[in-house]
Amino acid sequence: MQGCGEVPGCGRSGERGLGLAPRIHVISRQQPPVPLTGRTDLGGFYFQFRAERGGARSAEGECQELCGSLHYGNNLSIQLKAQDIAQTLMRPSPWGPWSTYHERGDQGRLLMDPVGLQLGNKNLWSCLVRLLTKDPEWLNAKMKFFLPNTDLDSRNETLDPEQRVILQLNKLHVQGSDTWQSFIHCVCMQLEVPLDLEVLLLSTFGCDDGFTSQLGAEGKRQPESQLHHGLKRPHQSCGSSPRRKQCKKQQLELAKKYLQLLRTSAQQRYRSRIPGSGQPHAFHQVYVPPILRRATASLDTPEGATMGDLKVEDGTDVSISDLFNTRVNKGPRVTVLLGKAGMGKTTLAHRLCQKWAEGHLDCFQALFLFEFRQLNLITRFLTPSELLFDLYLSPESDHDAVFQYLEKNADQVLLIFDGLDEALQPMGPDGPGPVLTLFSDLCHGTLLPGCRVMATSRPGKLPACLPAEAAMVHMLGFDGPRVEEYVNHFFSAQPSREGALVELQTNGRLRSLCAVPALCQVACLCLHHLLPDHAPGQSVALLPTRTQLYMQMVLALSPPGHLPTTSLLDLGEVALRGLETGKVIFYAKDITPPLIAFGATHSLLTSFCIRTGPGHQQTGYAFTHLSLQEFLAALHLMASPKVNKDTLTQYVTLHSRWVQRTKARLCLSDHLPTFLAGLASCTCRPFLSHLAQDNEDCVGAKQAAVVQVLKKLATRKLTGPKVVELCHCVDETQEPELASLTAQSLPYQLPFHNFPLTCTDLATLTNILEHREAPIHLDFDGCPLEPHCPEALVGCGQIENLSFKSRKCGDAFAEALSKSLPTMGRLQMLGLAGSKITARGISHLVKALPLCPQLEEVSFRDNQLSDQVVLNIVEVLPHLPRLRKLDLSSNSICVSTLLCLARVAVTCPTVRMLQAREADLIFLLSPPTETTAELQRAPDLQESDGQRKGAQSRSLTLRLQKCQLQVHDVEALIALLQEGPHLEEVDLSGNQLEDEGCRLMAEAASQLHIARKLDLSDNGLSVAGVHCVLRAVSACWTLAELHISLQHKTVVFMFAQEPEEQKGPQERTAFLDSLMLQMPSKLPLSSRRMRLTHCGLQAKHLEQLCKALGGSCHLGHLHLDFSGNALGDEGAAQLAQLLPGLGALQSLNLSENGLSLDAVLGLAQCFSTLQWLFHLDISFESQHILLRGDKTGRDIWATGSLPDFPAAAEFLGFRQRCIPRSLCLSECPLEPPSLTRLCATLKDCPGPLELQLSCEFLSDQSLETLLDCLPQLPQLSLLQLSQTGLSLKSPFLLANTLSLCPRVKKVDLRSLHHATLHFRSNEEEEGVCCGRFTGCSLSQEHVESLCWLLSKCKDLSQVDLSANLLGDSGLRCLLECLPQVPISGSLDLSHNSVSQESALYLVETLPSCPRVREASVNLGSEQSFWIHFSREDQAGKTLRLSECSFRPEHVSRLATGLSQSLQLTELTLTQCCLGWKQLAILLSLVGRPAGLFSLRDSTRHTEKLSFPRLEACALGFKKRKKERKKVLEDTELRTKIN
């Protein structure tokens, strides 16, 4: 190409004006290459087209393709490719659908129908404003271009966008026609304007004659202005060329003709009242609308998906147009109509077509109805145009143009697919079949995006191709009024109309069957046939079951007196073969001509035209209803000799009705088992025998086989849907024995969850339960129920618990339920939750509940009940004498209603609890003890003596939590409660009472007789309000505990029982005198706790708090808790001064108040100022500070009048002398100054004192300081250092205390971490002392110093040095120093790692220790080493050596020691490893004077032997080995030295 380059002036405006893709070729040439068929010239531009005929139909359609060139000046031209133009024309408008506009002010709606409506100028002006509002920047740029000298007022920015556009258009309009027309052409060229709107804009505003009509006559026409310099002519673009406008108009004309043809065809189909080919039978009669109900949420609906706005209330007729909400663009565009067989789904689909043909559904320009039973015959993949034109109605010409129009206006196209459950193509490895693939693409918007799709289906048959957001609408059949309407129309002016109505009203079973519209039609047909020849009541007797309805229908359609048995069985065989293969449409080759004629004559078959493609048509046949096909198949199975009973039983199965979204079931024979069971009834045997040519035995055998299969199924554990199916089958058999077996086999808890149930289902269930003796619980959760379903439960006395939970239950449902409740004699629990019942429905239930005196629990949770409705419900409480619980939660009531409910709780004698917390609202009741017979005989006698007595003795719990109660509400509540019974608990937490409300409740607490608890938590109480609350409860005798924590928003009052009456003076004196004879632990207990924790209290608040608490002190022992506040040192000091004014407290908790060590130590002064203080527990680091009184005798100590009695005064003095006070100080740095101050503070402490100290480590200096201060504390009875690290010097410091402080009677040091000093009282005389130094790591180097310190003691009773590190050397040193230590009791040296050397040295040391009376050494696992002393020299000594493991070389040392220990009279050797040879040597070496000496080496005794004889035995050991062995085998040797 030559001279390729960019076209000047063809930027954004040029491209958008052409509306083309960017594939534009710029060619340099002087003249157009081909002759022009159209040309427009403006300012050097001209746009030209030429016609070019395609050889075959392209994807864009069989039409003329456009080729063109846009020439600029004399050098450049733009060549436009044909496919670019075609793609541009077919491209969907990004501007979106424009079929609906709303004008400001009047909120009027304009339906922009380019085919059927001609828009006025005002409406077109509104459309233009809407269009320009979407692109304000473009409009501003054009304003500057057309009006360069006009100042755009900045104040317009604050206006509404549409108002700002209107002002700008007015400014353009007043400039004249040229300016206005140029602007309109720019709009059409540069903006994305829908084709039909562009045509209207150009035809109305784009010419001179359309200018003067705009905007009324608001102003005079301005003079035409000259063309603006540089402005392109509007006809430079193909989008505004006359040729394209002509194409658009032609396309609109074709579409308009097709839409009119489509409507005319539908009108012709439904206009005739005479049955025609394929015309549904229901349309020959007045249409009776069924009950429609939209599901609460579509299956698998994602959170936030919009379900549309279908306004459906149960019990009211539903407009068909309500099925589609075209005003909600975000709603689901796919609707699935779910209904069981016979509910009228196909009838409703045709009704929609009829209404559209009559012009009622004006929101749709086109409506197409397809049946899946015909679509199943298509085996090839279809395009949307082939589906609409080849299989439904073809346009007269130009299919592509019509389809393009439908595609652009897809939001006004409705596609109805009937029988989605019949889409039976099995999904192979490549996915679903062609029809389901096309259906899925339409549902998901892949094809014909924006169109509306409606499908009908039976429940449980939903394929996976449905979108998750599809709207589900349940079709629930007929209720009583609809049945009557249908019967009235069916019989019309016939004389049997009244008789038919009477028969239906008197027979409940037939009336429940008529809830299914198809069965209602069959019943009317049967009654029409039976009524003339039967007496009243006899006709209905022949129609007890569904099966016998169809049987009578066959008889009614047959010639009188002649039943074509052969034809019926042959037609039944065709029906069965179709069910087995999933076939519902038959061709002439499938059915013989005689059978076709028989079926048509008896209205069993219908014929229709089947279109499978263009020019491909043939006649198809189908049974008039699928259930009729199932019935005829059942007839064939039961009566045909070709079927044996084994084959028959394979068809007796139960089908589940759970909704399956992942797999579409292929079974069509849902009712086949029901019909087989119905034909197994004895009533049907003559009919079947006649069909089987009098083969009654064969028929009887088949009937028995069916019953036997049902018996096996009745004993199995089944799901809810299968239970319903089983009940239908059993009820059809009319076998009482089978019904009883089924009823008794049902579980006690029978749930039905998330599957639709009809009135017929519940009626059948009721029929079966009549054969049950035990009670049963029925739970219907999430089941779509027909409004009149509860009527089927009338008289079902076996129901004990009945629960419904569904948003689909409304007023009509409640009205029907109210009729059934009084007939259920065993009903104890009624649950009606999650419904949409209003005041009208509740009024019916309120009237019915008093007729159910046996009810124990009623629930109306989550029903969106109004306040008045809730009050109406609670009015029945006095009329339900056995009621235990009423649940009204999740119903959003106001505060005034809540107070009214509280009044009901106070006044109703059986209410024991009212609990309201946010959404919860529950009444708990305690019925009186009258017998059931008495309650049923007189339920309304509210003033009986028994109930008045119960009202006086009952206690009420009132919990009104988070109910937004305020001060004025509390005043009303207090006035109400003062008139009521005793209160067990009142909980008003989480409200808005604030200080004043809490004060009022606290003041009223003593008058309300609250037995256990008053909770005012989370009510905005402040520090100032705390003082008011304390003053308010100061006079409340029953208050046991008050806990206030402002940080945790806690305000809780706990109460005790009322105090008993005071005893007389003489009895009280005798009681006090007897106290001296009782142990302290047996004294009576009485106390009150005031916990003011985490309230932010400071020192400035203490004085006012103590004044408020002063009134509480005289009522009993007071426990105060100020923990978690901010008192600090100042507060602690001030509190120490204020405490004496509070009287006798039992405890005071000052934990977590930020006290310093000085302040903590200063609290020890309270021992001398507070007589009630006996225990002070301080943990400094964790800030735990607790002041406690004595745990015994608290009531007596607190009573001020006790000292008037002698016995009491004596007892108090006894307590002062005997009960010690204790100070426990832990987690505290114990430095010498602190210890000195502490001891000085405790100097004046009365009574015995126990001091317990604990720190991480106590230095030697601190320990010396503490021990030096001991003489200053004469009242000290115990000093304990627990969990405190001590140095190795501490044992010596403590040992020295035994001699320095005579009052110390025992020193106990363990492991250098636990030290205890016990002191004598001042009254005790000096006596022995003890020292225990275990686990102190003492070794040999410490022995002499320790023994020296211990030697200064006058009298040591016991010394314990066990578990140290003395070893053999340390023990030897200790034994050498032992004579210097005045031990009079025992010395424990166990566990010191000693060996045999220590045992031998002990034997050698015994002569030097005359006061030793006994020593024992065990070097085995026990590791014991004990030495026992006596105060004077002991004549006889005992030595016990165990497990010493002596070796032979030790025998001589042992013998030497024994020879020197002349006072040793007994030696016991136990397992010391000395054989008889060593014993003989030992005896031979021991030289002792005359006397008794015992040697034991075992546990058994032997004869006494003299020393000479033993010596002889030793000398002759080898010669007399055997004899000696016999003698020495005994375990004990004794010798007496003469």
What this model shows, in words?
The longest helix has 30 residues, at 242-271. This protein is α/β, with parallel strands linked by helices. The N terminus and C terminus are likely disordered. Helix 29 links the parallel strand 16 (749-753) and strand 17. Helix content is 38%, strand content 18%.
- Tell me the number of strands: 48
Helix content: 25-40%
Rg computed from alpha carbons, rounded to a whole number of angstroms: 54 Å
The coarse overall form would be elongated
**Class derived from helix and strand content:** alpha/beta
**Unreliable runs, pLDDT <50, ≥5 residues?**
1-120, 208-240, 273-284, 297-317, 659-666, 931-951, 1059-1085, 1193-1209, 1499-1538
Strand proportion, as a percent range, falls in 15-25%
Largest sheet: 33 strands, mixed
Number of H/I helices: 55
- Average pLDDT works out at 77
Oligomer: single chain
Distance between the termini: 154 Å
What's the gist of this structure?
Helix content is 38%, strand content 18%.
Q: Which descriptors apply to this entry?
A:
single chain; 1538 residues; alpha/beta; 33-stranded mixed beta sheet; 6-stranded mixed beta sheet; 55 helices; 18% strand; elongated; disordered N terminus
Topology:
Elements (H helix, E strand, L loop, with lengths): L11 H7 L6 E4 L9 E5 L2 E8 L12 E8 L3 E5 L1 H9 L9 E3 L6 E3 L9 H13 L2 H11 L14 H13 L3 H14 L4 H11 L36 H30 L20 E3 L39 E5 L6 H13 L8 E6 H4 L8 H7 L8 H10 L4 E6 L15 H11 L7 E6 L13 E5 L4 H12 L5 H10 L1 H6 L3 H14 L7 H4 L4 H12 L7 H17 L11 H9 L3 E9 L2 E8 L2 H14 L5 H5 L22 H8 L5 H7 L4 H19 L5 H14 L2 H10 L3 E5 L5 H11 L6 E6 L17 E7 L5 H10 L8 E5 L5 H10 L8 E3 L7 H8 L10 E3 L7 H13 L3 E7 L2 E6 L6 H6 L7 H9 L1 E7 L5 H12 L3 E6 L6 H15 L1 E6 L7 H10 L6 E7 L4 E6 L9 H9 L13 E6 L6 H15 L3 E5 L6 H11 L6 E5 L7 H6 L3 H4 L5 E5 L4 E5 L5 H5 L7 H13 L2 E6 L5 H11 ...
Parallel strand pairs: 9-12, 9-13, 10-11, 11-12, 16-17, 17-18, 18-19, 19-20, 20-21, 22-24, 24-25, 25-26, 27-29, 29-30, 30-31, 32-34, 34-35, 35-36, 37-39, 39-40, 40-41, 42-44, 44-45, 45-46, 47-48
Antiparallel strand pairs: 1-5, 2-3, 3-4, 4-5, 6-7, 8-13, 14-15, 21-23, 22-23, 26-28, 27-28, 31-33, 32-33, 36-38, 37-38, 41-43, 42-43, 46-48
